[in-house]
Amino acid sequence: MSNATPSAQFQKVFGRAPEIVTRAPGRIEFIGNHTDYNGGTVLGASIDRGVTVALAKRTDGKRNFYSTYNGKTVTLEAGAPVKQSGEASWTNYPLGVLAALPHFGQSVIEGFDYYADSDLPAGAGLSSSAAIELASALAFLGATGQHPDRETVVKIGKHAENHFVGVPCGILDQGVSGFGKAGHLVFIDCAGPRFDTVPMPAGASFWIFNTHTKHALVDGLYSARHRECMAAAQALGVKWLVDVSVDQLRAAEAKIEPTAFKRARHVVEEIARVDATVKALGAGKIAEVGALLTASHRSSQHLFENSTEELDFLVDALVASTGVYGARLTGGGFGGAVMALAGPSFGAAQAEAVAAAYAAKFGARPDILPMGTGDGAKVL
Ligand code: ADP
Ligand code: MG
Fold it and tell me: What is the CA(44)–ligand 1 centre distance, in A?
């Protein structure tokens, strides 16, 4: 991340001032694990780290893309976006946004100079991809005088990721980046989708421990979980698992294959935990919120079986630390990162002790990333 302002940096790269500067945050999955494709609910946090985009139109039909990510410029011709590979593959995110715009009735900007900067580690499960999509969308739209509503901007980002980049992500990433608000969590009812914000308790912060581990078969494991959830829904005679209560699921146990039942129990109880978390947040009961986060992890560990030895170790070490309200794996699982919700008595020294214990056991250090909430995507 550069220390200079985005406008000054743009000036340095392109020799003129930008017409528009935008910023969109990364996100944390707070609670609501694998609930999205089951029609359920999820709570996410927009964080105080993100991607900044600066842009100015050109009249010669050239599209210059520069990112501080690798300090290089990629030059493409205007026209229908063509998928890029190799060093230029990061431009698929802004190109995907350009390709998505007409699907939402928005006109496409032809030539431009584009600059991106970030203080969000890419590939750390914090959704830098949604951040760059939403910051790009606001820049392209704003530079052409188009101001669709927030939900449309969110859907443009998701369309780019699903259809141009080719990642089948749910609505969480773009929804939280788009609807985030400092001091708040974002609630998403994925069936709508419907978006809302819920105040975060004062004095609580997030700590992400990124293990840099990833199960070799993660794509296959995701689709297996998806299939198992759909099999349970089918056995229950519903469209998706959000349509059954915890009690209805228990009563129907004999009808469902045992593995599918365990997966369904995780999803149905997790949806109930999201609702309970919203209530506990509203009542200012932070200890209860923390207990729900840890319960979510235990369910991942024993029922959905999308945790790992590394993630379990971090959760155990964190919940045993002073000042931690709760901890859980965040994101799809099978490796990746753990999130802790902590109060002011948990600080760098405590985080360091957890990382050192992990390193002693697994021979590699997790990255420690402390963060707070931040505003959703906006024009600066
Ligand atoms: P995550 O969303 O968890 O960070 P992804 O693999 O979905 O991981 O997205 C990361 C990719 O997004 C990067 O490899 C890069 O192509 C692109 N990206 C994110 N931020 C930037 C940036 N500031 N500049 C250029 N590309 C970026
Ligand atoms: Mg991503």
Answer: 19
